[in-house]
Amino acid sequence: MKCWNCQNALEEVLVCERCGVPQTVGFMSPFEVLGIPPNLSWEEEKLRRTYERMALRCHPDLFRAHNDDRVLQAARSAMRGLNDAYRTLSDPVSRLRYVLAASGQTQEIPRAVPEGLQAKAQIIGRVLEAIEQARSEGDAEAWEAQQDHLASLQVQAEKARDRSHATLLALMLEWDQAVSQNDGGWPEMPPGWNERAMSWLGERRYLDVLEARMAAGRQWPAEAPAGEVSGG
Amino acid sequence: MALQMTPQGTSGSPFVGIDFGSCATRVSIAHGEGAALLTDSTGESAIAAPLALSPQGGVLAGAAARERQLLFPEETLLSPKSLLCQSGEELAADEALFPHKISDPGAVLQIEIGGRTRSAVELVALYFAELRQRLEILRESPASSAVVSTPVAFSPFDRQSLHLAARMAGFQRVRLIEDPTAAALGWMARGGRGRVVVCCWGGEHFSASIVQADPEIARVIASVGAARVGGGQIDRLIARDLLERVRGALTTDPRHEAHLARYALVTAEKVRRALSQKSKTEVQIPLAGAAKPLKQAYQKEHLVGWSEAVLGHARRLCDLLQQKAERRRGDYDALILAGGLTRMPQMREMLEQVFGAPVAEGIDPEEAVARGAVARGRYLDRAAELPLVLDSLPRGYGLEGPGGAVEAILEAGTAVPASKVETFTTYLDQQTTVGVQLFSQVASDWRPLAQVQLSKATPMKAGQPAIEVTFTADEDGVLSVEAAEMMRGKQLVAELHPLRGLSSAQVRATLESLDVAADEDFPAALRRMVKDRAGFLLRSVRDASRRHAGKMTRDEKQLFAKKIQEMEELIDAGEVAEIREALQELEAIAGPLKSRILDAGLQTFLR
Ligand SMILES: [Zn+2]
Q1: According to the model, what pLDDT value does residue B536 have?
Q2: B167: nearest Cα among B508, B583, B499
Q3: Which of B118, B180, B227, B372 is the most exposed place for a label (fewest CB within 10 A)?
Q4: Above 80 in pLDDT, residue B595?
Q5: Cα distance from B87 to chain A (closest Cα, Å)?
Q6: Is residue B175 a contact partner of residue B12, using CB atoms and an 8 Å limit?
Q7: What CATH number does the domain containing B159 carry?
Q8: With contacts defined as CB-CB under 8 Å, which chain A residues touch B316?
Q9: How many domains does chain A have?
Q10: Which residue of A has its CA nearest to B320?
C-alpha cells in the first residue's frame, strides 16, 4: 500500500509515517487497524492507550485547518476505521465474537444453559414467570412471596457467572498460545476450540437474559421510564 | 513531525463559536488567548432569539426583533431554534402562545410568517445570516467558519438541519458541538482536567454529559437530553395562568389574542426571573376596555410549583445519565453548570445534590457554551493547545429485525465518526427496492426515527441479493447511509426519510444549490451589506420621524435631521467603518423614539 498523498510505501495503516496524512481504510481486520497481534487477552488500559495514540494522529479535527477536502475525507475514513476497530476489540466478548466470525464461524450461537444451572432450569423458569405475572397483575403479595426464591437464584447465577468467566479466560489463553506459536500471525484454530467458544457464547447469552429478568423482578413497583423525550 | 500537505484549498476564516439558544444566542470570536463576544444593539452579549419578518421583506434579529414582538407577534418568531426540534403538534398545542399558521406539520415544518411560507431550516438560516453579517461588518473580514452548539436532544436529523441552516447562511465550514461538551471544553481551556459532569439548562433544553478530560484526550462518556424541559416551559405555565386571569377579568373576548398571549409570555419571563431572586413580585397587564390594568402578585411558592415538572424531568435525566455512564453520586471532580436556568437556586441545589460534586468556579453560566464553542474553533484552527475531544453518540440507533424486535446497530456512547455495515436481502422475486425502519433508543424504548429506502437493486430471485448497507454517523452525529450489492459491487440508491427533518435528497439538492452560488468579491459584498443595512435604517428612521413628529422634542427633531443627512452623505462615499459607526449612532438615538412609538402602538392593541 502506498500513501495517496506522497506515494510513500506505508508501514502503518491509518496514517502515513512520512507525510502525516491519514489514509482511507478499506476492508481490514480491527487488529490490523490498531496495529496489534490478534490476541484475545488484552489489558483494557493498554488497548485504550493504543487507540488514543492513533486518534491523536488521524482525528478529522486535526486536519480542518488544512482546508483540503481530500485530507478531511481521508481523516474521517481513518478515524471511522479506528473507532469501529476499537469498538470491536475493547470488550473481550466482542473480541471473541470477531475472532470466531473471522475464522468462518458464521452459524447461529447455540442455546446453552451454563453448568450448575442445568438441573435448575425449570425452577428458574417457574419463579421468573410467577414474578413477572405478579408484576403485570399488580399482585404485590404474590411478588413478595417469590423474592426469597429470587435471592437464592441470584446466588447461583453469580456462581455460574464466575465459572463462565474462568472458562472465557481459558479459551482466550488457548487462542493466544496459538497466536504466539504462529509468530503473532492469525493462527489455525486449536482443535475443538470453536465449538467450545460458540457454546460459551450461548451460555453467556443465557446468563445475560437471566440477569436482566432477575433485575427487573426485584423492582417493585415498576419504575417510570426516564422520559428522555423529543429529539428522537 | 511536520506535515507535508498537498496544496491547500482556499483558506477559511478563523472559526467563530455560536451558542445557539432558545432565548438568546451568543457569538464568540477568538481574541488573543481568550474570546470576545459579539454584542447585540443593546450592548449585551446575549443576542435575543426573536426573528422578525415583515411582509415588505424586512428581516430583523435580536433585540431589534424582540422590541417589535409585542406589536407584531404574528410577524415575530420567538425562537427559531425551537422550530428545529419540535413537532407541528407540539407547537400547535401552545395555541395563542405560538401565533403562526403551521402550513405543513410534516417532516419539514413550514410556517406562515411575514406573508410567506417558510421552512424551519430557512428561518434558522435567516437568523444565522444576520449574525454572520454583523460579524463581517464588525471585523471587516469574511466569517466563513463556525462551531455551532447543539442540544443533546437534537436527533441526527435535527443536527443535519442545524448544519444545513449554517451552510445556507454562508458559513462554509461548520462543525457542531454539544452544549455540555462545549462548556467542558471552556473549562479545559482554563486548565481543568479530570472526570466532570456538565449540565446545560436553558430556555427549552436540558442537556448533560459526563466527560473524562485527560491531558491529551477528552472523552464524552455518556450524555442525555430532552426538549421542553427549560425556562420556556415554566414561562408557558405562568403565561397560561396570566391569560386565564385576564380572561376572567374581561367582559368580552380579547380582540387581539396573539398580542395578549405574547404580552403574557414576556411578562411570565419577568415573573420567573424576579421570583428566582426574591420572594414576591407584582405584574400588571393592561385590560381592553377597563380603566385599570390587571394587577397580579406572585410568591416564590408559585414558582416552585410551576417548576416542579421541569425539575422532576431533569432529575430523572440526571439519574439516567449516571446509569448510562455506570457512575454514581460523588464520582466526579467537578460539576460544570451552564445556561440561565442553573442560576435558579432550586435547580442548582438539585444538581449539586444528585451529583455530589463541587461546582467548578470562575465559569459564567451564560457564556460558558459560547466560550467553549470558540475554544473548539481555536483547536480546529490549530491555534490552541487543548485535549482532542472524542464525541460520542448520545443515544443508540437500531433496525427492525426479522421478528419485529429492534436490534441495535450503533449503541449509545459509540465514539464518532463511526460506521456499521448490515446485510439485507429481498423477500420477493424481482424486487428492486427495500425499505427498512430505523429507530433511536430513548431510555429503554425504541422509537421510529427514519425510513431507509434502497432502490435500483438488480432484479433477482427472492433472497438472492446480498445488499450491504453502511450506516455512518459523522463527527457531528449526523447520519448517512450507503448501499452496494455485494456480488457485483454495484452502488444502490440509498435514501433516508426522517419523521422530522430533511431527506437525503433534500439535503443534497440544497447543498448543490449553495455550491453554484457565485463567490462575490468580499470588499464589494461588505460594502453592499453595510449600505443595505444603513439604507434600511435610514428609511425607517426617516419614516418614523415624519409620521411621529408629534412625539418628538424640538432638539430631537434637529438631531434626527442632522444624523439623517450625515448618513445620506456617507452611504454613497463613506468607508465601511464610517458607515458602521454612523449606523450605530443612528440606532442609539432612534432607540428612545422607537420605544415610545411601540408603547403607543401597544396600548391600542391591549386596551
Ligand atoms: Zn505520505
Answers
A1: 87
A2: B508
A3: B118
A4: no
A5: 9
A6: no
A7: 3.30.420.40
A8: 224, 226-227
A9: 2
A10: A226
Residue B373's H or E segment, with its range, is helix B368-380
Cβ atoms B58, B72 nearer than 8 A: no
User: What integer best gives the mean pLDDT of chain B?
Assistant: 91
Number of domains in chain B: 3
A3 part of contact set with chain B, CB < 8 Å: no
In a domain, B2, yes or no: no
Q: Is the CB of A155 inside 8 Å of chain B's CB atoms?
A: no
Nearest to B381 among A65, A76, A230 (CB): A65
Nearest by Cα to B392 from B212, B147, B164, B202: B212
Separation CA B169–CA B553 (nearest Å): 41
Whether residues B171 and B65 fall in one domain: yes
Residue B61 CB neighbours (<10 A): 26
Q: Indicate if B400 and B371 belong to the same structural domain.
A: no
Instruction: Please check the confidence at residue B256 and state whether its pLDDT lies above 50.
Output: yes
Residue type, B221: I
pLDDT band at B38 (very low <50, low <70, confident <90, very high): very high
pLDDT at A229: 47
Residues A58 and A146 in one domain: no
- Vertex B211, ends B207 and B212: CA angle to 5°? 175
Q: Indicate whether B29 belongs to any domain.
A: yes
- How far is the C-alpha of B72 from the C-alpha of B585, rounded, in Å? 25
State the pLDDT at residue B283. 95
B289 domain-assigned = no
Asked whether the beta carbons of residue A79 and residue B228 sit closer than 8 angstroms, the reply is no
Mean pLDDT across the stretch A95-123? Answer: 88
For the domain that residue B550 is a member of, what is the CATH number? Answer: 1.20.1270.10
User: Which of A54-63, A129-138, B242-251, B393-402 has the highest mean predicted lDDT (pLDDT)?
Assistant: A54-63
B474 and A CB contact within 8 Å: yes
Distance between terminal CA atoms of chain B?
A: 72
Kindly report, residue by residue over A145-169, the tens digit of the pLDDT.
Answer: 999 999 999 999 999 999 999 999 9
Which member of B3, B390, B443 has the closest CB to residue A225? B443
Domain that holds residue B480: 396-503
Q: What does the pLDDT read at residue A231?
A: 35
Inter-chain CB proximity A231 and B227 less than 8 Å: yes
Task: Give the chain A residue nearest B227 (alpha carbons).
Answer: A230
Instruction: Check residue B41 and give its pLDDT.
Output: 84
Are B99 and B139 in a shared domain? yes
Average pLDDT over residues B513-519: 70
For residue B16, pLDDT over 70 is answered with yes
Q: Does residue B229 have a pLDDT over 70?
A: yes
3-state secondary structure of B227: strand
pLDDT of residue B30: 94
C-alpha atoms less than 13 angstroms from C-alpha of B360 in its C-beta half-sphere: 27
Domain stops at, among B390, B420, B443: B390
Measured at the CA of B67, the angle between CA B65 and CA B72, to 5 degrees, comes to 75
Closest CA to B398 of B420, B413, B417, B426: B420
Is A61 near chain B, with CB under 8 Å?
yes
Answer yes or no: is pLDDT of B527 > 60: yes
Cis amide prior to B417 (ω within 30 degrees): yes
User: How far apart are the C-alpha atoms of B605 and B40, rounded to whole Å?
Assistant: 28
- B84-103 residues touching A, CB cutoff 8 A: 85-86, 90
Question: Domain for residue B54, yes or no?
Answer: yes
